[in-house]
Amino acid sequence: MDSSPSEVKIISKCFVKPKTIPEKWKEPYHFSPMDHVILSIHYIQKGLLFLKPSISESVTPKEFMETLLQKLKDSLAIALVHFYPLAGRISTLKTNDSRSHSVFVDCNNSPAGFIHAESDLSVSDILGSKYVPLVVQSFFDHHKALSRDGDTMTLLSVKVTELVDGVFIGLSMNHSLGDGSSFWHFFNSLSEIFNSQEDNNKFLCLKNPPIFREVSGPMYSLPFSEPDESISQSERPVLKERMFHFSSETVRSLKSKANEECGTTKISSLQSLTALIWRSITRARKLPNDQETTCRLAAGNRSRMNPPLPMNHFGNYISLVIATTTTGDLLENEFGCAALKLHQAVTEHTGEKISADMDRWLKAHLKLDGFFSPNIVHMGSSPRFNKYGSEFGMGKAVAVRSGYGGKYDGKVSAYPGREGGASIDLEVCLPPECMEALELDQEFMSLVSSSSSS
Asked: So which residues are the signal peptide here (predicted)?
């Protein structure tokens, strides 16, 4: 056994292969243009924290964990039959043009990772901390890995960390294979299989099976010779991470206020909450009035495609919705003005604009220059994802947490509140001095609920 930092000890590591190998997956699974763009972005790392259930005297804690781990491995082997590209490796194909190449997934005989770990921490150590403890990053495999590293790393890894009174199940998925919607589709499907205990035949039929594009094509070539030329990464600054909870009542109130101030009914709850955090973080940064500030939202594109794609279409169907203004304009005008600006940006995010943005990314050789600008607020993930719907014999999760991947100054992730309804949790990442200023912002903190899944 080997130890990783921050009080997490690795007990065992193994690989899990698909239970069967569908014939069609023996062909290369070529990347779409968006998949290529995301090669330079971290793995998606999200997980669920559970309280250990009360167990009968006839079952020891060791036997409980052994049963849980084996059932998770068996469920993973079946899930990989449905989501077979996750049991592959990234590979590069040279083209006839010496200045281009194509990236694809080789699905032949490559397993997913499975890790069992232990920690002497309790659930309250995670939930009771004002800031997300650094140790949470150790609950995930592929720490700091970029999607491009999938040529040598597993494209999916499950890490199960046993706490004193809980269990954390953390998934790390290569982002170039799928977006957040696809990630939670897999997580929910793994749960569905896990809970289909009695009839083994049910394992092979999911209620909502993934749909993949054609395996064999089309093939897209990229305008540079060596894949590593497309990858740019920088070490992130020291960040504080904190969960802020907004009750259903607060979210509805913000939406009503935004629409009332703008004389409309079309501004959504998430657009209203995003406007609040955009203004609050910008105020905490103490930027000059003439300084430009940008808010980005990661928008799902499936419904915007022509024709629209079903939500279970697996892959990367996201792009950025961007609203930009000056600090003075953002803070001196009413809250509703910021919400309306975001709503207009979402409305203008059409299929035609998505295609134009993709062409621009490809012509820029997929560089992420400016992506991590210190004046940006980025709203990622979605409260619409069914995050608390994944259960593994321990009841409903008590919290959602994420790993190192995809975090930087101004990154915000929206999760559904555990109690449901319209409640939302925001995971906010800021440098310590900005986080302190945000916490001293009475307008913002007065809206944050003390009752939280965080």
From this structure: none
CA neighbor of 130 nearest in space, from 416, 436, 387? 436
Task: Please state, as a whole number, how many other Cβ atoms lie within 10 Å of the Cβ of residue 212.
Answer: 16
Q: Could you tell me if 179 and 300 are in contact, meaning their C-beta atoms sit under 8 angstroms apart?
A: yes
Q: What is the pLDDT of residues 21-70, one digit of tens each?
A: 777 777 888 888 888 888 889 999 999 999 999 877 778 989 999 999 99
Distances (CA, A) of 121 to 11, 130, 203: 16, 16, 34
Taking domain 240-388+404-446, whether its CATH number is 3.30.1140.32 is answered by no
Q: Is the peptide bond before 61 cis (omega within 30 degrees of 0)?
A: no
The answer to whether the bond into 416 is cis (omega within 30° of 0) is: no
Go through the chain and tell me how many residues it has.
Answer: 454
Residue 295: pLDDT band (50, 70, 90) is: very high
Q: Which amino acid is at 241?
A: E
Q: Is the Cα torsion angle 427, 431, 432, 434 positive or negative in sign?
A: negative
Q: Are 416 and 188 in contact (CB under 8 A)?
A: no
User: Within its chain, how far is the Cα of 140 from the centroid?
Assistant: 13
C-alpha distances (whole Å) from 365 to each of 100, 223, 224, 322, 368 are 11, 7, 8, 20, 9
Phi, psi (5° rounding) for residue 184?
A: -75, -25
pLDDT, tens digit, for every residue of 358-393? 777 666 655 555 566 779 999 999 999 999 999 999
Determine the residue type at 237.
Answer: P
Count CA atoms closer than 13 A to 189's CA, side-chain side. 24
Contact 408, 236 (CB under 8 A): yes
Quote the CATH superfamily of domain 9-197. Chloramphenicol acetyltransferase-like domain (3.30.559.10)
What's the CA gap between 94 and 221, in Å, rounded?
A: 9
What pTM value is reported for the model? Answer: 0.93
Strands across the sheet containing 8-16:
2-4, 8-16, 112-119, 156-162, 166-173, 44-51, 399-402
Q: Which of 387, 442, 392 is nearest to 413 (CA)?
A: 387
Nearest residue to 18 via CA among 111, 90, 88: 111
Indicate the domain borders of the chain: 9-197, 240-388+404-446
Burial class (CB in 10 A: 0-12, 13-18, 19+), 356: exposed
**Residue 282: phi, psi to the nearest 5?**
-65, -40
Taking residue 453's Cβ as centre, other Cβ atoms within 10 Å add up to 19
Three-class SS state of 45:
strand
